[in-house]
């Protein structure tokens, strides 16, 4: 087996990228990246009727948003049909496969008889050991010869050793009567040709591994390391479906969860490293291993997702967050940020990141930067601008005109003016929030003043002092 680690993600382009698929991709990416290996992407588009270019584009877009870069070109499984068929014919020549001329009617009749006699309905082809001389001039499929007795042992890095009796496995079809290869053959040939060393995928494929091993063995190829990961369940412990809410990755993006938070949360969904809940990409790549994957299904927990996303936003690099905001706005159809808005956000990021669990929450805190001027307070904020508060704001303005624009000085001047009007700064904070942001919930008024600068702050306070409700 090659010394370099090679993993792959191989989705079918029949719909959006499911969150379970996204986690599978992440596990493959982490395992390869943490070991200096390769992470490959293959689109399993052999089902021509259901595969669509739109679905392929959605998958690529989802992986791009999640930040999972792949090595080399994207491989189309359908494009390798000739190579897959070639391997089926090689197996035929080796005597590891055979031509089966049984018709669908004959196969169904066999199963009917087996059912009525209480026998296994796995089809036993009369052509398995037939002399080629007796072969008719008729359509045929090529079937793999599965051992009739003994067991196939799947050595799985997650599930442990899983034994399946060979009498439970049929002689699976490799090539249909029209000469097209089946998916089960294509997967094995592609994984071998792409040099895949570790197959990390959902445990709904566990039984497939036993059947696929027959092809590896017959061709004399190295069997990859199997790692079948449990599926994701909803909070109620049932298989994840639309009734649990979002299941497509793009829905999580449009709800405003940051990509770094999704990576962190999905990594923790079914895998653990001690008690570590929040970690960087570098730590995830360093720590991730197959032994840390649990055997039982993971449960989706939106509270935990929000908590992790909040912590990831707080520790994020400002430039990365600005990029994330731009991607979010594009995803939900909002106009791009203007240069001024992006500049203001960059300067304000230090006071926006804390306690924002999603991008929309962060943008709501940034309303004082993003809103068009003049600022119009919303209904709740407007209540703070009563005549007394407005008169204090009017008195505050000239004091700020000559203040040094530092936090300490702004706090000192504002507190002094409040006391002169026989009130506390706390009573003045509400009217100032309404004046500077038009909202009742905002970052600290001093942070807003520092970000906005002297001229804009004074302009907004002056306008609010003249505000007439209704």
From TrEMBL:
GO CC term, one of those recorded: cytosol
Compartments in which it is found: Cytoplasm
GO BP, one annotated term: glutamyl-tRNA aminoacylation
Motif ('KMSKS' region) on chain: 239-243
Catalyzed chemical reaction(s): tRNA(Glu) + L-glutamate + ATP = L-glutamyl-tRNA(Glu) + AMP + diphosphate
EC identifiers of the protein: 6.1.1.17
Domain Aminoacyl-tRNA synthetase class I anticodon-binding intervals: 342-464
Listed CDD domains: GluRS_core
Calcium among keywords: no
GO molecular function terms noted in the UniProt entry: ATP binding; glutamate-tRNA ligase activity; tRNA binding; zinc ion binding
Positions of the Glutamyl/glutaminyl-tRNA synthetase class Ib catalytic domain: 4-306
Gene3D superfamilies to which the protein is assigned, alphabetical: 1.10.10.350, HUPs (3.40.50.620)
Enzyme class: ligase
Subunit and interaction comment: Monomer.
Function: Catalyzes the attachment of glutamate to tRNA(Glu) in a two-step reaction: glutamate is first activated by ATP to form Glu-AMP and then transferred to the acceptor end of tRNA(Glu).
UniProt family annotation: Belongs to the class-I aminoacyl-tRNA synthetase family. Glutamate--tRNA ligase type 1 subfamily.
UniProt cross-references to NCBIfam families, sorted A to Z: gltX_bact
Name this protein carries in UniProt: Glutamate--tRNA ligase
Organism, as annotated: Thalassococcus profundi
